[in-house]
Write a structure and sequence with these properties.
14 helices; alpha+beta; 18 strands; 5-stranded antiparallel sheet; globular; homodimer
Chain lengths: 470, 470
């Protein structure tokens, strides 16, 4: 790539130590955890909101694409600068500005790492609910952009449910504040929840006030094993019929259990074909009582084995099944296609049957696990690395999406759309919704400079695409 | 009013039994609970979504204002047809279409009464969280339009948090579906929460799928009385620091207690200046244990009297204080101005002090109560009926809003904007947010026919106002 025409002007705008423009330096900022790649022509590290505003105005003036990036843990390519241009990294804007234990809020910059917030909140016996598996490496800005969730979303909601207010700068370079510092509010339209989950296509977050919650004293973990996934699904329904929700309700299918058995560290009944891991939180002295109805719901007649642990070490042993799974998956199929579809909880059993049919029809391994209590299943298609299997896997994906939509589901529960699912979402959204989303995109980002090529499919007519001047 | 030019065409469109066009019949549809009045020129009763679509298209073609109305319990004039035109009543579109106890969802038409839904859900040991005090008379469509809440919002959230999917028709006459039938979803922008709370200015709801929850077995009620409102505020903070939230945490100030004493039905300590009512839900056998930390937090040294009741009758006795309040308020000041401001919970004490200063400065009675656990206080200014006091009251209102915004609060927690607060919200929202809201309004309602004169203040430039052809 030759040097873009705007680069000299960018060097005037940005402090040299906050700018990368050597192609070799820029290269690493072209990836995220999707393993897609497209190199930016410059990387800018913002340290304050005014710099972000200046940069967005610069990008408007030069019609240059701007892709905001936290620490790149996204799995859908949402942080990959598809049209090159500039990557805005928030990693140096990572301060915890304020934590108010009485009000149970934290005011943060977008580059703060989720785990760092949890650590600081923990000192006050508080926590922030979103707990994606990338929590040790992902930023709050990324959590906001993707409406991150995790197992605890079942009881405590997603990022959208745990944010009070955001400060952001639109694609027009205009600052706004959305949401309220209060726990309720109905003044004006809900712009905050509109921005959360919009994957950096409408505005760039510069600050957020997050709602923390008092941390329950204690945690119990239960592990229930079934000879048939359908029995596990029946148990999930019975558990959810209790007023006390568990704070995690995770499922693993027979293919997962085979991988775990191969690993040799976890002891499982021979005929186990499905497993539930259940976390229950509450006051230490009440936890056995709180757990009792959940344990009863899980210990159906068809349950092969039920164990519950209240101590840290025993709990870890039960979670071992889950912890050995992800590395095993990556080992056997480094190019696995990992989808995170959701269906209504009562349709999970049908979804699993449908996935069985797809697996058999195409002779491709499919491994399913995930946040079943929310109806959210991570469907992993496992091609063997050959081009033929890769083609088959993408064909299967199409059938998986069909099944999910037929069952009243949605194509993504928490990973988002990014590049990966962009061409599929018109199957789920109706034409009026898409039209309104495109109109809102134009309202917030009239030149289409923010994260182009992501989230929404291209509209029939749109502002001229930004020009990367390559 | 002479007959508008479009009325003959409307008579062709709508079945005579679903149309009112006699001014005397139309008159009653010009009110809501705000006691504002502006008569429509016609009232149309819809029975299905296609009729709503036809009507919106008719209004676009004739540039006629369309104000959608449930049962008119709104207190801000949101259902008053300010520009006359047509009122669309959903009261004949009131079916509970489906209740799915396994999935814990209800699919409803917009005219269904909240209480009817609660009754049907109750048969399955389920409930829908929003519980505005108008629940016996208000519709789900109205709850959606206003993002209705109520005491239980503290633990279970507002309408926005308890709705999975809505079907609606935009002001352009185009149908859309927003949200998902699943408990999680991140495909596209969050149009559902954008529409909820937009007071019928963006689209008309034709159907909704609501998230129900398992009904806790039992309820305990506690009543705590304090000699100083500041002590009550300290107790609220201590209660909220517990991981188990009460399902209601209601406050009453000294002026409320005077009214209650006058009524003579409730026995209160002589020096009582503040009262908290606390509802705690849970399993019957665990309720004493669950209540214990909340009771401990409320029973501070400064607490004059603490009572807790687990039986239905005793609970009712404790709630009697609250039940006698509203009729008493209405009796002594039929023209009371009732605001529902919100501040961060830790700023409640300052808000009460500020209200004391306003009360003293202007010698006007101010009575405060409300959902203090959410920071949401109903501030009742009580002019005596004279024009002079009325003027003073409206002047005070200005000072109340100033204080609320200075404390980081919002002008409305649940009542909404409607006509009443429309000219005030630019004090709270920044110019970019207002500009984006106006842009979104134009996207959804290009001719400005839906509920004109409500919610957002007029933009500097806007589509020509609809013409009522009076």
């Amino acid at each position: 790539m030759s040097e873009p025409g705007w680069l000299a002007a960018l060097r005037d705008l940005v402090d040299p130590e906050d700018l990368l423009d050597d192609p070799a330096d820029c290269w690493t900022y072209g990836y995220d955890n999707s393993r897609q790649h497209s190199a930016p022509q410059a990387v800018v590290f913002a340290r304050e909101a005014s710099q972000i505003q200046d940069l967005i105005r610069f990008c408007r003036a030069h019609r240059t694409a701007l892709t905001t990036r936290g620490l790149g843990t996204n799995t859908t390519g949402a942080a990959v600068p598809l049209q090159h241009g500039i990557v805005l990294s928030t990693e140096r804007m990572n301060r915890l500005l304020d934590i108010d234990p009485r009000e149970q809020t934290a005011r943060v910059e977008p580059g703060l790492i989720n785990q760092h917030l949890q650590d600081a909140a923990g000192e006050h016996q508080l926590f922030w609910a979103p707990d994606p598996s990338s929590a040790p490496f992902c930023t709050i800005g990324g959590n906001l952009a993707c409406n991150a969730a995790g197992p605890r979303a079942l009881k405590y909601g997603t990022t959208r449910d745990n944010t009070l207010q955001v400060q952001a700068i639109t694609g027009a370079g205009e600052p706004l504040s959305a949401g309220t510092l209060t726990r309720k509010g109905v003044v004006g339209f809900d712009l905050m929840r509109l921005l959360i989950g919009s994957e950096g296509t409408l505005a760039v977050f510069t600050e957020a006030t997050l709602l923390l919650r008092p941390r329950p004293q204690a945690l119990a973990t239960a592990r229930a094993v079934y000879a048939d996934p359908q029995h596990a699904m029946a148990a999930i329904e019975a558990i959810l019929a209790q007023p006390n929700l568990p704070c995690a309700l995770e499922f693993m299918d027979a293919a997962c259990l085979d991988l775990i058995r191969d690993d040799g560290q976890v002891d499982l009944p021979e005929n186990a074909q499905a497993l539930l891991l259940i976390d229950i939180d509450g006051d230490a002295d009440q936890l056995p009582q709180i757990s009792a109805p959940i344990a009863q719901a899980a210990s159906t007649e068809q349950c092969l084995d039920f164990q519950i642990a209240f101590g840290e070490e025993e709990r870890e042993t039960l979670w071992q099944a889950r912890r050995t799974l992800s590395p095993a998956l990556r080992r056997i199929a480094p190019e696995k296609i990992n989808e995170d579809v959701v269906v209504p909880v009562t349709r999970l059993a049908e979804l699993l049957q449908e996935l069985d049919r797809i697996r058999t029809r195409h002779a491709i391994p499919i491994v399913c696990f995930g946040h079943a209590g929310s109806g959210n299943i991570h469907v992993n298609l496992m091609p063997d690395g050959s081009e033929e299997q890769r083609q088959i896997a993408y064909g299967c994906l199409d059938e998986v999406f069909d099944a999910v939509l037929r069952l009243g589901g949605t194509l993504s529960g928490e990973h988002g759309v990014g590049m990966a699912k962009r061409e599929h979402i018109a199957r789920e959204l109706d034409p009026t919704s898409l039209k309104m989303m495109h109109a809102i995109k134009r309202d917030f980002d009239p030149d289409g400079i923010l994260n182009p090529g992501k989230n929404l499919p291209d509209p029939d007519k749109f502002a001229d695409p930004p020009n990367a001047e390559m």
